[in-house]
Write a structure and sequence with these properties.
five-stranded mixed beta sheet, 114 residues, alpha+beta, 3 helices
């Protein structure tokens, strides 16, 4: 994809990903003028697949309290031909998951049942 100047081209980019075997985003937002495209996905596996497919070099993670629920928002971004594309995942995390947020490699954290 060399140009995202039109809505059809932006949606074509998503269609190419789905045709390549990626899950369709559960929410898609395309700003007027095709300068911002946001994909919301359902789980971490989908998030990783889309960010890899699009080649997103910019990653950010934000953890916040949403009325008693702790949420983690992961965002991967890339700019293609002046269009900023973000792949977003919002997950509810429990207190037990906070240890994972602090670990350099979450899969290596062992927990003791108390």
């Amino acid at each position: 994809m060399t140009d995202l100047a039109t809505r059809a081209q932006a949606f074509g980019l998503i269609a190419e990903g789905v045709a390549a075997g990626l899950s369709a985003p559960w929410r898609l937002y395309l700003a007027r003028g095709c300068r911002f495209l946001s994909l919301n996905v359902g789980d971490r596996e989908e998030w990783n697949a889309w960010r890899t497919h699009l080649g997103c070099p910019e990653l950010s993670v934000r953890v916040y309290d949403a009325g008693g629920e702790i949420r983690r928002s992961s965002v991967a971004e890339v700019v293609l031909d002046g269009c900023r594309i973000s792949v977003e995942l919002t997950e509810e995390v429990g207190i037990d998951d906070l240890d994972r947020l602090l670990a350099a490699e979450p899969a290596s954290v062992e927990r003791e049942d108390r």
